[in-house]
Please model this.
Amino acid sequence: MRNFLLFVLLAAVWPSGAIAQSGDPVDRARTLIEQKNAKAAFDLLSAQESREAGRVEFDYWLGVAALESGNLERAVIAFERVLVRNPEFDSARLELGRAYLRMGALDLAGQEFTRLLSRAPNDAGRALLNAVSGFVEVGAGRDSNLSSSTRDFPGAILSSFGLPGIEPTGNSIRRADNYFAANAGVDVFYRLREDRALFAAADVRWRGYRDFSNYDYVLGDAAVGYRARVGEITYSAIAFAQSFRQDGAFVDTISGGRITNDRDSFGVSLEVRRALDAATEVALGAQVAEYRYRTNPGQDTRQVMLSVALENRPEWWREASLSARLFYGYDDARRPLNDFTDTTASRHTFGVRLIAQTDPRAALSWQTALGWSRRIDDDAFARATLVPTGRDDLFEAFVKGSWRVGEAWSLQPYALYYYNRSNIDLYTFRKAEGGVMLRRDFR
Model:
């Protein structure tokens, strides 16, 4: 859902913010740019950079010349120097957003455009803005634990239920396999006025396994939202839905029906965001969602989630953005686990997630995330007859790179790792995935 921020771009409708210049190299470079000779302007100014860097006018026009001549990394550096000295220089911030956008750093571009949303553009900028973008991806990878199964199933059953000699079947069998993947998505942004916008996004993701086709899945997401800025605060309201389809391994049941991993969810969320300074923002979020399991209604829940996030672009690491998010959630089960008990799957969860992301200098970028969350069952003996209260600690690590191999093409290797440590041995597992995707963006 991050991609919708990029559509505040359409930089051509924003004022160029021409500045009166006094230095001869800057005057000549500006003339060259107006004559559509940005390369000559860049060559002229870059030769003076070691002496003139730090002067706002020089850095601005060096950035413009670099951007227009395709030297995107140099443009980013120049515009960042401008904004360090003058954070209110709207034209420099706009051009920085354009540079990020052309480099494929959509989140960073969106941050710059969002900061401009409350500032008045010219008449052309007041026109309604409509934009559409999309992507397609294809790739392959390997999954070390398709069903997130514990390593020692007989031992886990013994410690959790006191039953000896039980061998794994169905989804309890630990499996690893290679997979192919294909994804596609589209984002739409419609600007109502300077501080109001509508947006929508949808994507579909498919994964097919080589040897265990029962674990093939299709995941679809859709969302529509409204964003408004009032003073220093930005409000976002989103309605969303998700559908997940996966058969999983066949499991015999008393009723004779097959239990699958199919799941549907839908809900609404609200975020309130405020900039603390030019480099830091704080966000408060609330979400209400319904989760429905088509063949396993005992897992149906209504979830309420609260969160607070802090995002920062540190001075000591200007090419990166950092964020930390704390959250608390409560899942209220809609019915008992089965017809023979009053015990439910109700639970509460809390945790933290840390994210770091760089901009794609030299056509390379990466993002990484670390997370920890704790789940605590609300009902006694909900998941094991020998453990009164189930507690799980889930540790997550994720890293993804992006290498631009063309103006709209990129290779994106990724890896992730999960470790769920539970006081119910049956739910302790480790899982790793890794692969590479080839992505094509459309704007």
Notes: Residues 72-85 form the longest helix (14 residues). Residues 1-22, 120-129 have pLDDT under 50 and may be disordered. The chain has two domains: 2-127, 133-442.
